[in-house]
Structures are given as structure tokens and as C-alpha cells.
Specification:
globular; single chain; two-stranded antiparallel ribbon; 6 helices; alpha/beta
């Protein structure tokens, strides 16, 4: 986002980025890398909330990034023999609202942490350059998705 400074210069501030998604999707690693790149980031633990809209109430991000991961890959990342039974509820109820309203969706199942960072960082840079008002889709998001 841009704001006018005290003189004629333009001061650029980065957006508040919210990151949401199921366990083991890569939220924490991405958050650390985005912070190192100068972004203000909130990891939203929506998967642990019984209120589907809690991400909006507590965080109010300028940009919402949804990281997804297949249940089998999540189990593998956590060292489990099989996916946890509660993951279905997590995805279908607790995370559905955030996924529906995200600005950028990324399935991380086949991606390394550096690849995730590069794709999200490229999206954020394009988001920062968009005209004021953006090109929002019908549901109010920028509607980008990488599957």
C-alpha cells in the first residue's frame, strides 16, 4: 500500500499478510521467510478454531494466503502412518470460509519451502502493484490460484 509522506515522496508500506491453511501446509516456514523479506505477517491458526470466521475477526489481513496440502502429504510431513481423523472436519468446516475468501490459494503438496516462498512473494509483489481498488472478483478476492 502507498501513503504520502511529509514531503512529495511516496512512502510504500507492505500489506498485512494473513496465512491460513491446514496443519503441515507450510504456514510457519513461509511466515518466517516473508517476515525476513519485510512483510508483516500473521499466521492464522484457523484450523484450531470452531468459528469459521475467526480469521477475519482477529486478524483483518490486507491479503489472505491459503496454503493447502493433501492429507497424505500432511501425514508424511508429521511422521504419521495415516492422516488424522479430525483433518476432514478441519478442511470442510473450520477452513472452508477462509479458503473461499482467500486472495491467493496454493497447494504445497509437491512444493519445497523455497518454491512456496517464491510463488507467494511473486503474488504479493503483483498485489502491491495493482491499481487502487484492484481487480476484485465477485467474491471480493483477487482470485489467484495455483493448484
Amino acid at each position: 500500500m502507498s501513503q504520502l509522506g511529509t514531503g512529495c515522496e511516496e512512502v510504500t508500506t507492505k500489506p498485512l499478510v494473513g496465512i491460513v491453511g491446514p496443519c503441515s501446509a507450510g504456514k510457519s516456514v513461509l511466515a518466517r521467510r516473508l517476515r525476513a523479506a519485510g512483510y508483516e505477517v500473521r499466521e492464522i491458526r484457523q484450523e484450531h478454531s470452531v468459528t469459521p470466521t475467526m480469521w477475519q475477526r482477529l486478524t483483518h489481513p490486507d491479503v489472505l494466503i491459503y496454503l493447502d496440502v493433501s492429507m497424505d502429504v500432511a501425514a508424511q510431513r508429521e511422521g504419521l502412518a495415516a492422516p488424522s481423523a479430525w483433518w476432514v472436519e478441519e478442511r470442510e468446516f473450520r477452513l472452508a470460509h477462509a479458503r473461499q475468501h482467500c486472495d491467493f490459494y496454493l497447494d504445497t503438496s509437491a512444493l519445497a519451502p523455497q518454491e512456496i516462498f517464491i510463488l507467494v512473494h511473486e503474488f504479493l509483489q503483483s498485489w502491491e502493484r495493482r491499481p487502487t481498488g484492484g481487480t476484485e472478483s465477485e467474491n471480493g478476492t483477487l482470485g489467484h490460484s495455483l493448484l
